[in-house]
């Protein structure tokens, strides 16, 4: 059994990790940390875990973490992981960081939208944890920068078409909608019930921190700098993310040809589902699962493709993809612990 710890277990992403790892057949959950809830049983914080998780939260200690774990998931706000991750790696512990601290290859891109990086030497060694895309590199990795939820939903549909040179990279516009849990569990006015319920708004238009992350990955994929237009929206639901992505096609093409590219690319990966029979992705169909559903239409008048993807921001967008990455790092089936039958509703 792989002994696993979750640092920042009481946040939404951390709690989702606890949920998934609890029933993972090759993992033993040995350590949960929290500042505010140290000494509190995890099931007192999340009562749905009563009789399921019997661990008590403790404050973070390097020595305890070294003694208790082989792999650690850091589910902390950015800036905090970069201070603790290097010493964990030096102690031989594998780390999957859910924050932005180890997602970027370019230090200057990270520093332009976050803050000075205190461990830039680890950026070169970390692998960007978009599981299906970077599978081979993840098998060799000891540090994973788990992708942001918006980038996951945008990059998975785009990358096969960019590699096949079927879309103009400079024409991409991504319009995404996220459930409120994407903002985390901390209290804030913008996620207050009365501010969110029965409302729908764009925010951080063309200045969201996931924009440079998306740009960097697409630029690396095609070998030149690209800037994507990205507009995130907040929708009044607790979890789920839908992205609508527009791009000009490089040539007249058929639906069948696009289906072939997407289906061939993801043929070995069960968590990316290409929607057939005129079905388009919906957040309800991926809720609580590690699936990314992808559908599309072609507007023949404009020779433009409209891609639509749906994920659960807390699962494929965070904890589920993190566990998928752990499976890949440890040479396990990538779906272990993640292949529960989805709820029909
Ligand atoms: N929510 C999502 O959909 C999502 C998706 C992808 C990636 N992520 C990333 O995952 C990480 C965690 O996100 P989250 O949504 O789970 O956030 P969250 O709900 O706010 O949880 C943050 C966790 O970090 C702990 N923490 C420790 N030191 C902290 C500090 N100084 N300030 C605030 N919290 C501190 C908190 O517990 P204590 O305060 O008790 O220590 C809590 O367990 C973030 O880096 C986020 O960008 C989140």
List the helices and strands and how they pair.
Layout lengths: L1 E6 L4 H11 L4 E7 L8 H4 L16 H7 L2 E4 L6 H10 L3 E4 L9 H7 L7 H5 L1 E2 L6 H5 L3 E3 L3 H15 L9 E6 L14 H4 L4 E2 L7 H13 L6 E6 L6 E8 L6 H11 L6 E3 L17 E8 L4 E8 L3 H15 L16
Parallel strand pairs: 1-2, 1-3, 3-4, 4-6, 5-6, 7-9, 11-12
Antiparallel strand pairs: 7-10, 8-9, 10-13, 12-13
The structure holds NADP nicotinamide-adenine-dinucleotide phosphate (NAP).
NADP nicotinamide-adenine-dinucleotide phosphate binds next to α1 and α12.
Order of helices and strands: EHEHHEHEHHEHEHEHEHEEHEEEH
Look at the structure and give the mean pLDDT: 97
* Assigned CATH architecture of the largest domain: 2-Layer Sandwich
The largest beta-sheet arranges its strands as 8-9-7-10-13-12-11
Helix content: 25-40%
Measure the end-to-end span.
33 Å
- List the ions, cofactors and other small molecules found in this model: NADP nicotinamide-adenine-dinucleotide phosphate
Report Rg.
Answer: 20 Å
The assembly state of the depicted protein chains is single chain
**Could you say what the CATH topology of the largest domain is called?**
Dihydrodipicolinate Reductase, domain 2
Kindly estimate the percentage of residues that lie in beta strands according to DSSP: 15-25%
The CATH class name of the largest domain reads Alpha Beta
């Amino acid at each position: 059994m792989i002994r696993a710890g979750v640092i920042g277990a009481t946040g939404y992403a951390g709690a989702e990790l606890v949920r998934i790892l609890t029933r993972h057949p090759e993992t033993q959950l040995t350590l949960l940390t929290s500042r505010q809830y140290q000494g509190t049983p995890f099931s007192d914080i999340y009562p749905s875990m009563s009789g399921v998780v019997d661990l008590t939260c403790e404050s973070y200690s390097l020595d305890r973490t070294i003694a208790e774990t082989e792999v650690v998931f850091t589910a902390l706000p950015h800036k905090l992981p970069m201070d603790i991750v290097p010493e964990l790696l030096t102690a031989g512990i594998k780390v999957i960081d859910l924050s932005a601290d180890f997602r970027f290859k370019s230090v200057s891109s990270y520093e332009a939208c976050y803050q000075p990086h205190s461990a830039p030497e680890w950026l070169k060694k970390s692998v960007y944890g978009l599981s299906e895309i970077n599978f081979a590199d993840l098998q060799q990795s000891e540090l994973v920068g788990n992708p942001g939820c918006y980038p996951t939903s945008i990059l998975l549909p785009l990358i096969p078409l960019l590699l096949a040179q079927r879309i103009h990279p400079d024409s991409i516009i991504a319009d995404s909608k996220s459930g409120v849990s994407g903002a985390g569990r901390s209290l804030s006015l913008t996620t207050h019930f009365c501010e969110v319920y029965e409302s729908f708004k764009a925010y951080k238009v063309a200045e969201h921190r996931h924009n440079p992350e998306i740009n960097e990955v697409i630029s690396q994929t095609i070998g030149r700098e690209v800037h994507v237009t990205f507009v995130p929206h907040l929708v009044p639901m607790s979890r789920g993310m839908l992205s609508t992505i527009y791009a000009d096609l490089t040539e007249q093409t058929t639906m069948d040809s696009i289906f072939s590219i997407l289906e061939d690319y993801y043929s070995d990966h069960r968590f990316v589902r290409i929607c057939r029979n005129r079905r388009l992705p919906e957040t309800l169909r991926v809720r609580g699962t590690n699936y990314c559903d992808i559908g599309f239409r072609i507007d023949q008048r404009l020779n433009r493709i409209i891609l639509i993807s749906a994920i659960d921001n807390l699962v494929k967008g965070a904890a589920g993809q993190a566990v998928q990455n752990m499976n890949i790092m440890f040479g396990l089936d990538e779906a272990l612990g993640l292949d529960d039958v989805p709820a029909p509703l």
